[in-house]
Amino acid sequence: MRPLAVALLALAGCAPNRPALAPPDAEFLVATDDSTFWVRAGRDGIKLRAAPLILARVGGRFLELYVADDDRSFSEAVFVGQRVYARDLERGDSAAVFHDTVVPPLAQAWRQAHPDDTPLDPDEPEPEHPETRASVDIALLDVTGHWLSIEVHADLSPRGSELVHESRRAVLDLRSARVAGLRDLTAGGDAARLLAEARAALGAARDSASRLSDERGPAALRALTLLGVDSTSFSLTAVRDEAAVQFLAGAGRMTVDGTSLPLTPLVLARPPWLTDDMRAARATSEVDLGSGRAVERWARPGYELLARSDAGADALQLALRDTERREFPLGAVQGEVRRIYWLDSPPVDPESRRALGRAFDEASYYSDVVRTVRDSHGRPAPRTRLAAATSRSATRTSARRPGATHARSPRHSRARPRA
Asked: pLDDT digits over 288-316, tens only?
């Protein structure tokens, strides 16, 4: 995992910064691609904490999201799937909210066809030349309220055959651990409109490829001809501060090139699930007339949170601004500000505050280790090698990924959602 996406005043540890003027009273969490920052400001100055946590807030409770390997390998075949877990910070229990449907049936079929092949123990090395490799990587894309968007990339390599791939997206309802359909996210007939517009966008891409006069045109057109829009392969995102869906066009099956194409995001019309809390977490985008830099602004009672693009750097400069428009710098974060969780208005309850404190404390011990996760009933789940959600590689050489970052126990490792 890359270093915490921070400059954030080098975080100054957790020591308070005491300016001559006191900053406005404020408390909130800032979520970036792979980290969460806890900001507290007031008469005692500004206090900052950072942790490699991916959080969601569902029904007023904070959940930590992470990905774990589901290793079902044998002495002659490698099968490594993944599962997505949500850990309730107050209870400390983890529950699976998604598991891939590619690897388990392949592993079961192998067991039935090769009853004498021995399942590998978690710490046993994989076979050097397996008859079959099958693996899945799951990337956590973004969280929107109780919806988690993911991308699932599958690789299959039977010995003696070409490696084939497939990528898909899905939106999970964290309340029910269920994959959402378009109708779950839309009002009225909006699902049909979105599908029609996505297919039109793919058609326009084909038309553009057909008009290319150089050698790129035929190759692009051949690739695009294989793609289609699947009503179940999409993620949630935002366009101009509005909720939107982004379809991932694909072949609908595993292919040698594994081509997929993210289409232009489409704004949702009056999504019925959009709550006041979600609206409060949205920023207003504008341009700083003095510097010409883009600024995101969150207006709160008694203060504003500002995020300015840093010219020439992939970073955002954060600052608080009080009612007299005095600014108090917080530092810089890499990438995008994905979410804001307000803890001051309404004030976070004591149980949630203690749970957040424990989670931040525990995150400081996260490391690349093998751990046991527990399900929602407190029973130990099968011991697995816990893996971070990372950017996929189209040609991963080992499904068991020796030397890769295996990191994501709810207490002892780190997850990396992909932007």
From this structure: 766 677 889 999 999 999 999 876 667 88
User: CA 175 → CA 92, 180, 271, distances in Å?
Assistant: 17, 11, 17
Contact criterion met (CB below 8 Å) for 271 and 187: yes
Is-contact 46 16, C-beta < 8 A? Answer: yes
Which residue's structure tokens are 């010409």? 292
Q: What is the dihedral of CA 419, 245, 154, 137, to 10 degrees?
A: 30
How deeply is 160 buried, as exposed, middle or buried, from its count of CB atoms within 10 A (0-12, 13-18, 19+)?
exposed
Peptide bond into 346 cis (omega under 30): yes
Give the pLDDT of residue 67: 95
The dihedrals phi and psi of 150, each to the nearest 5 degrees, come to -135, 160
110 phi, psi to nearest 5 deg: -65, -45
**Distance separating alpha carbons of residues 288 and 271, to the nearest angstrom:** 31
User: Residues 6 or more apart from 243 whose CB is under 8 A from it?
Assistant: 144, 236, 267, 268, 271, 274
Residue 392 has pLDDT above 60, yes or no: no
One-character DSSP codes across 188-240? TTHHHHHHHHHHHHHHHHHHHHHT--STHHHHHHHHHHT-B--TT-EEEEEET
Q: What is the pLDDT of residue 20?
A: 66
Beta strands in 288-338 (DSSP E): 294-300, 303-309, 315-322, 327-334
What does the chain come to in residues?
419
